[in-house]
Amino acid sequence: MCGIVGATAERSVSGILLEGLRRLEYRGYDSAGMAVWDGELIHRLRREGKVQALADALDGQPLTGSAGIAHTRWATHGKPSEHNAHPHMSGTSVAVVHNGIIENFEELKSELMISGYNFSSQTDTEVIAHLLDQAIKSGADHLSAVKDTVASLDGAFALGVIHEDKPGELIAARQGSPLVIGVGIGENFIASDQLALLPVTDRFMFLEEGDIAHLTRDEITVWDINGEIVEREVTQYKHATSATEKGKFKHFMMKEIYEQPTVTLAAFQDRIQDALVNERAFGEQAAPIFDQVKQIQIIACGTSYHAGLIAKYWMEGLAGIPCHVEVASEYRYRPVVIQEGTLFISISQSGETADTLAALRDVKDQILASLTICNVPGSSLVRESDLCLMTNAGPEIGVASTKAFTTQLVCLLLTTLVIGRRFKITEALERQIVESMMLLPALIEESLQMDSDIELMSQAFAEKQHSLFLGRGTLYPIAMEGALKLKEISYIHAEAYPAGELKHGPLALVDKDMPVVTVAPRNDMLDKLKANLQEVSARGGELFVFAGCTQKVQSGEGVHVLGMPDMPEILEPIVYTIPLQLLSYHVAVLKGTDVDQPRNLAKSVTVE
Ligand code: HGA
Predict the structure, then answer these.
(1) Is 607's pLDDT higher than 90?
(2) I want to staple 154 with a disulfide (CB 3.0 to 4.6 A). Which of 90, 104, 446, 592 is the partner?
(3) Is the peptide bond before 87 cis (omega within 30 degrees of 0)?
(4) Candidates 4, 71, 77: which one to mutate for ligand 1, based on the most atoms within 8 Å of Cβ?
(5) Which atom of ligand 1 is nearest to the CA of 1?
(6) In sequence order, which residues have a C-beta less than 8 Å from that of residue 450 and are 6 or more positions away?
């Protein structure tokens, strides 16, 4: 959350910064700002609202200069407003952009106020600007001022700093929030995410925890947490630049929904050899680690947590491996008992999810090993885990996760198979599941053809305040994911229940104003589910049932059945996700909400 971008170049940098902000807007969009050094002074412009508001302001008041920093905000301290927008400055000399939270900002603020500093915002960030100014005024050079200031800050953060007395210099610091350096030719950059810098470079240097970097046009110097100068590897970005554009689609979310046949294939095809999963795909160390696994602990947040819940059904049901799943923000703050032989699996689209990362760090020396299922190469979870399996979904820009989820499921299924070999999964079963996986892209393609029916169906939701999602077995977490999607982008209250729980409470809510969505699994629980559906119909509830032809659920008064392709049971959770994504999308479009950037949310949750 919050996007930082910075540049030092020979040319004017404001266009680069503005394009960077547009590309980082998924990380926060309540205000935006830019500070540019023009050879003499730092000029700053900030606006409440989206990056476009800043762009409009820049049209009337252009900023030109060869070094600068910019920010798009997702407020944590102080409401979204122009005076709380970044960059924050101390006087006219120093400007700072910040991603993260300064936990000790209140005490630092009191001390600074006693020293005579006035505050013009409610943010935690402003203390950083004044601390830098204070250090410089007491004789520290620019770089030592940043080092001393960083040492006095508690919390997680990434910073970008410019100073009016240091022409063309940019300082960056990373402690808990992502930051990458873009390496150009005669120009260098910083950003929260490499996507911001793709128009200007494809070479990146990922900063590590505690790193401080000094950038000029021609030189990059990095100090590690111990203050030693270090070399950080430069890696090349591999995705096509079209991956970050909407193309023919109106929204990134729709584009990403439609990419799922391709990206789910990319998540497994290179990992299959002779109809079995190649466990080297998990890393060189995978085999000896997997040999020692006795149980699995999955940790994740939001949509990734739902993927973890489905993996539990697979790990325990198919493979017979004990598996626990918990949301990271709970797990990390409670005393936990970790049994011998625990493989810790983290799931995160960005690889920077603050709670998930903190949970991994907390238990690192008590677990057998860690595996991350992640979409962003070079991210913190990838670097800090023993093993990783990349989801290969390509950049996901829509704030509501879609393709990252289905590719996580594919990766979790591969994981179940390779670890499950050491438990209950026979070679024959593995081959059978791998063969089923080959059908996945075509099945997703087929469910995408339901798009216009679902668009029609969405009309029944647009005026409603509440909705209920029901499922059983592996389709229960899919109901949870469908409800989350609807909440996130259409702002309709949506609750998910295991269908068997209906009469234990939520049935009291069912009436004609409460649409009930059901994902009907094709398994031995179907008859029980049909009974649950009767209970809803009997109370006047309007039912929308996603079911396959063989499920024999009939449309009738108040019951709308949407036919799903028939498929192997193992693929149901992945394929049944698609119509629920489409439903939330079309409801949001009908309601006129901001599909890709829903209110109050942002992607890559790098703050607690
Ligand atoms: N705490 C700062 C930055 C917020 C942030 O990084 N959000 O993800 C603020 O509130 O401005």
Answers:
(1) no
(2) 104
(3) yes
(4) 77
(5) 8
(6) 562, 563, 564, 578, 579, 582
Tokens of 462: 């647009």
What is the CA(398)–ligand 1 centre distance, in A? 20
265 CA to centre of ligand 1 in angstroms: 37
Contact (Cβ atoms closer than 8 angstroms) between residue 129 and residue 89: yes
- Residue appearing with tokens 């700002």: 33
**Residues 265 and 212 both lie in one domain:** no
Residues 164 and 266 in one domain: no
For 474-524, what is each residue's pLDDT tens digit? 999 999 999 999 999 999 999 999 988 888 988 888 888 999 999 986 655
Cα 79 to ligand 1 centroid, rounded to whole Å: 10
Average pLDDT over residues 554-566: 85
Residues linked to residue 220 through DSSP beta bridges, in sequence order: 215
Is the CB of residue 211 less than 8 Å from the CB of residue 223? Answer: yes
Instruction: Choose among 331, 319, 569: nearest CA to 437.
Output: 569
Scanning the structure block, which residue is given the tokens 């029609």? 456
Q: How many CA atoms lie within 13 A of 211 on its CB side?
A: 23
Could you tell me the two tokens for 296?
Answer: 């699995």
Give the separation between CA 119 and CA 84, rounded to whole angstroms. 11
CATH code at 505?
3.40.50.10490
The rounded distance, in Å, linking the Cα atoms of 338 and 258 is 40
Residue 143 inside a domain? The answer is yes
Task: Give pLDDT, residue 526.
Answer: 64
Q: With respect to residue 481, please indicate whether it lies within any of the assigned structural domains.
A: yes
Statement to judge: residues 415 and 272 lie in one domain: yes
Distance CA 563, CA 69 (A): 52
In the predicted structure, residue 271 carries a pLDDT above the cut 70: yes
Residue 275 falls within a domain, yes or no? yes
Residue with tokens 């997680």: 156
Q: What is the pTM of this model?
A: 0.89
CA atoms within a 13 Å half-sphere pointing along the CA-CB vector of 122? 8
Q: Does residue 603 belong to any structural domain of this protein?
A: no
Contact 497, 469 (CB under 8 A): yes
DSSP letters, 4-40, are: EEEEE-SS--HHHHHHHHHHHGGG--SEEEEEEE-SS
Residue 607 CA: nearest ligand 1 atom is 8
Decide if pLDDT at 135 tops 90: yes
Q: Which one, of 425, 381, 423, 413, lies nearest residue 293 by Cα? A: 423
CB atoms within 10 A of CB 428: 8
Domain boundary among 438, 456, 487: 438
Q: Which atom of ligand 1 is nearest the CA belonging to 605?
A: 8
- 428 lies in the same domain as 475: no
**Residue nearest (by alpha carbon) to ligand 1 atom 8:** 1
Contacts of 321 (CB under 8 A, 6+ apart): 293, 295, 296, 315, 416, 419, 420, 423
Let me know if 374 is a catalytic residue: no
Dihedrals phi, psi of 284, to nearest 5 degrees? -60, -35
543 in Cβ contact with 560 (< 8 Å): yes
| C-alpha dist (Å) from residue 423 to 293, 295, 372, 426, 456 | 10, 11, 21, 8, 46
75-112 pLDDT tens trace: 999 999 999 999 999 999 999 999 999 999 999 999 99
What the block records as the tokens of 341 is 């032989």
- For residue 190, the enclosing domain spans 3-237
